[in-house]
Amino acid sequence: MAESRPLRILLIDNEPNTQELLKRDLESLGHAVTLAEDGASGVEFAKMDPAPELLVLDLMMDPKGTELVLEEIALDPRTANVPAVVLSVQRYATLRRRVGEKPRITLYKPFRLPELQNAVAQALALAPKA
Question: If we measure between CA atoms, which residue out of 36, 11, 17 comes closest to residue 119?
């Protein structure tokens, strides 16, 4: 597993229980986590300074779906290359149709802390180097 450093993570999920569990897990790994309760607020948080270094978001968000959130965040040059971990109960083919071809790490629910930690490390490895 790649070495992980503390990150600014934007967690976008409309399920409060999931938000709190993921926030606790990510903070236990040393990361600073900002919570967004839906896609629209997630896009707004992504535009703030400092920009997130990693997105963790649920595939099934309403009313603004994950695919629109990722598209809007990609339009901002500061966040266009921010890696993403997409959380899903859906499997690969459905997921690819929903979020497109751009490489992203998918973490299938249910998962455990070591799997989350590995997904974070993999997402960082995919990010373009500055």
Answer: 11
Segment 79-121, tens digit of pLDDT: 999 999 988 876 655 555 555 555 578 888 889 999 999 999 9
> How far apart, in whole angstroms, are the C-alpha atoms of residue 38 and residue 86?
14
> How many Cβ atoms sit within 10 Å of the Cβ of residue 75?
9
Total domains in the chain come to 1
Structure tokens at 89: 């109960």
Q: Is 88 helix (H, G, I), strand (E, B) or coil?
A: strand
Enclosing domain of residue 108: 8-126
CATH code (residue 39)? 3.40.50.2300
